[in-house]
Design a protein that fits this description.
The protein is mainly beta and 154 residues long. It has one domain. The protein is 0% helix and 40% strand. Strands 2, 4, 7, 8 and 10 form a five-stranded antiparallel sheet that branches. It has a four-stranded antiparallel sheet with strand order 3-9-5-6, with no helix packed on it. A two-stranded antiparallel ribbon has the order 1-11.
Length: 154
Amino acid sequence: MPKLRWSAPTAWADAFGSTNLDALAANSVKISTTTIDTRATREFGIMFEFTTTSTMSPTGAADVVVMLLPVSSDGTNYVDGEDGTTVANQPVFVNVPHEVLGLRIKATSAQRVISQMIPVPPGLYKAALLNRSGVPLPATGNMVKYSLVSQETA
């Protein structure tokens, strides 16, 4: 009987571009323009990495929430949501695959946080990041990358 095992994850890819998260205000969301396509390769899950290379001083129960916004049934539109600070326009992250990434509460020159694997069915997705750090993200050096994970039989 064949064994089911994890295959090597894909190379980490940029989800937002090198400057799209710069100076993102506290309690604001940014939706990526990059489409994550898992239809053809049928990856089983996705992992996210949030990094900042600049100094930030998160406050309170600081975190960022990375969400996967699926394409709707029409194949061209995605789950409702808009960039910005208006909570009414932000995606409801409890209704979509997401991961809460805790941040260290201290002034530091860098933060790197990697999510657990999020199960994801085949489809089209856009990533969204909600900044709940209590402070704006630094003016430069902010990235979210993703890697897709598959299973194989041996």
